Amino acid sequence: MSMFNDVISAVYAAIKRLAEDSWSDHKTTAIKDGEAFVSKTKADLELWTTQLAKGELTRHEFEFLLLAKQELATLEALKHEGLAAARLAKFRSALLGTIADT
Questions:
Q1: HEC states along the chain?
Q2: Which tens digit of pLDDT belongs to each residue from 21-73?
Q3: How far apart are the first and last CA of the chain?
Q4: Contact 19, 42 (CB under 8 A)
Q5: Backbone φ, ψ for residue 82 (5° rounding)
Q6: Which pTM value belongs to this model?
Q7: Structural contact between residues 12 and 73, judged by C-beta atoms closer than 8 angstroms
Q8: Closest CA to 66 of 31, 95, 30
Q9: Residue 37 to residues 41, 53, 54, 58: CA-CA distances in angstroms?
Q10: Per-residue model confidence as pLDDT tens digits over 3-18
Q11: Cβ–Cβ < 8 Å for 88, 78
Q12: Residue 85, CB half-sphere, CA atoms under 13 Å: how many?
């Protein structure tokens, strides 16, 4: 479990960097939405991360499974701030990429 806690900590730090670097005008809201997505998918992320570490999943398979969960990245807080659908989609993509890279 310790390894997964390290991964989750790294994911949260990466989400904060993403928000600061690319979404500074909506930084706090982007962090909130990113962390909400991680919270919703935490059990799956733990399973997939473990399988990836053991070689039971390839990186491609891990990314595919992560993309399958993208509908859970509802980004409600950013929607309330009036971001256009294209900008929300861009953040969702960046969020999933950040998690996969971490």
A1: CHHHHHHHHHHHHHHHHHHHHHCHHHHHHHHHHHHHHHHHHHHHHHHHHHHHHHCCCCHHHHHHHHHHCHHHCCCHHHHHCCCCHHHHHHHHHHHHHHHHHC
A2: 888 888 999 999 999 999 999 999 999 999 999 999 999 999 999 989 888 88
A3: 17
A4: no
A5: 85, 20
A6: 0.81
A7: no
A8: 95
A9: 6, 22, 24, 22
A10: 888 989 999 999 999 9
A11: yes
A12: 0
The residue behind tokens 């733990």 is 46
Read off the tokens for 31: 């962090």
Give the pair of three-digit tokens for residue 85: 């659908």
What does the pLDDT read at residue 4?
A: 87
Token pair of 15 as six digits: 């989400």
pLDDT band at 76 (very low <50, low <70, confident <90, very high): confident
Residue type, 26: H
Amino acid at 68: A
Q: At residue 11, what is the residue type?
A: V
